[in-house]
Amino acid sequence: MLTPTFSWPTRTELREMLAVAAPVVIVQVGLQVMGFVDTLMVGRLSADALAGVALGNFYFFNVAIFGMGTLMALDPVVAQAFGAGDLGGARRGIQRGVLLALLISVLVGAAFAFSGSAFQLLRQPPAVVPMARHYVEISAVGLPAFFLFVVLRQALQAMLVVRPVLVAVVVANLVNVFANWVLIFGNLGAPPMGVAGSAWATVLARWVMGATLLVAGWPTLRPHLTGSWRAATAFGPLWATVRLGAPIGFQWFFEAGAFAMATLMFGWLGTVPLAAHEVALSLASLTFMVPVGFSVAAAALVGQAVGRSDMPSARRHAAGAWVLGVGFMAFSGMLMLAFPSAIARWFTLDAAVVAAAAPLIAIAGVFQVFDGTQAVASGLARGTGDTKVPMFLHLFGFWALGVPLAAVLGFRTPLGGAGIWWGLTLGLIVAAVLQAGRVRRRLRRDIARTVVEHPAAQTP
């Protein structure tokens, strides 16, 4: 029987949503700040060093994002198990996440070995490539800590415990700033290491971040990480977890890859258009962290509701995520449309870059609502255990429509850089509408719990 998909959330449900989402937003911004600090501090050395770190970070996240997305399988598995009172299922899910994080670290580390060839294939400046390659190679040392942090973070968030994650990210940022100061410039008697010092500082910060999260979250994590791991090593459930999470990894890769492709297109247009694109993209990435927070909260709260077979609560939490996440993006979009030049001057005093960035910021104002819509929809889909269809919807919206349209409008019309952004915007709108429609149809029906193991194994 079909039921309505929208029912207004109660104050309790809105408070729950905000309580989970607000720290997650701070965490997401904190993770971005680490890369920003690396770029800011190494920029005092030279333009080539700045470009090397920026390019190294670009490669790191565009390669690692598939692994990060794959580990998002913990959202439905852990949240639904916890909602159903199946602590054994939650424990095995978290343990499988740890094993997968270690495996993904090896695979991504192998991909890092080809960064130099990738940079040359993408026609990056010869003077920058060696520094960027070295940055990526050093960053590989921090991969296990990075992916283990992702697993522990997702597990805690699925159980609605977010304070330890916030503590870990704050501590990691402080360590990153201090280590950059010491290793980049050779302070406190250390040899000046430049770009390599920035990479080692980030590696240290990631290990500290993972260790801090383990310690701060140990009271919650201890029952899930101690005891026998034998059941977690069974191949069948491990493979089922990969099959559940890999589509999320591809979905994230398709979205990030589309904007990465846009960055390359702007590079072909010239220095000023590329700088303008970076200004507008930095702004859009910052505001995007808010619906990402509500996306994470929605995945956890809706997942728990599905686990305890409480679809009315799942629908109310979904509505709360839409109202808060999309509402914020609507407000930020209005500001971008009203004050694009003033906002651009927050980022740069270069008149040419401001003039080129202002139209892009206005376009970002147009797509804000749709960006928030697809972000919240993705979290709701994860919470319900729906991962394959959203992957194809993102592939269609961003790569069958968005990127081709960006290329045509950017290079075959007088629009130039604005055409690239309009192309991506149209693809984003289509992806958002399709994702929202998919979630709406699913929430009209009762949803069964996502299971990755044989029913006989579902014991405490």
Task: Explain this structure.
The chain is mostly helical. It has 2 domains: 9-233, no CATH class; 246-449, no CATH class. The protein is built from 17 helices and no strands. The two termini are 33 Å apart.
Compact description:
The chain has 460 residues and is mostly helical. The chain contains 17 helices and no strands. The chain folds into 2 domains: 9-233, no CATH class; 246-449, no CATH class.
How would you summarize the topology of this molecule?
Layout: H1 11-42, H2 47-70, H3 74-83, H4 87-112, H5 115-121, H6 129-139, H7 143-158, H8 163-185, H9 195-216, H10 218-225, H11 235-269, H12 271-307, H13 311-338, H14 340-347, H15 351-383, H16 388-411, H17 417-443
Helix pairs in contact: 1-2, 1-8, 1-9, 1-12, 2-4, 2-6, 2-11, 3-4, 3-7, 3-12, 4-7, 4-11, 5-6, 6-9, 7-9, 8-9, 11-12, 11-16, 11-17, 12-13, 12-15, 13-15, 14-15, 15-17, 16-17
Name the features.
single chain, 460 residues, 2 domains, 17 helices, mainly alpha
Number of E-state strands: 0
Helical residue percent? over 70%
Straight-line N-to-C gap: 33 Å
- Class inferred from helices and paired strands: mainly alpha
Shape: globular
Arithmetic mean of pLDDT: 89
Number of domains: 2
| Sheet with the most strands, sense and barrel status | none
Assess the beta-strand content as a share of residues.
under 5%
pLDDT under 50 segments (min length 5)? none
Rg over CA atoms, rounded to whole Å, is 22 Å
What is the element string, with H for helices and E for strands?
Answer: HHHHHHHHHHHHHHHHH
Q: How many helices?
A: 17
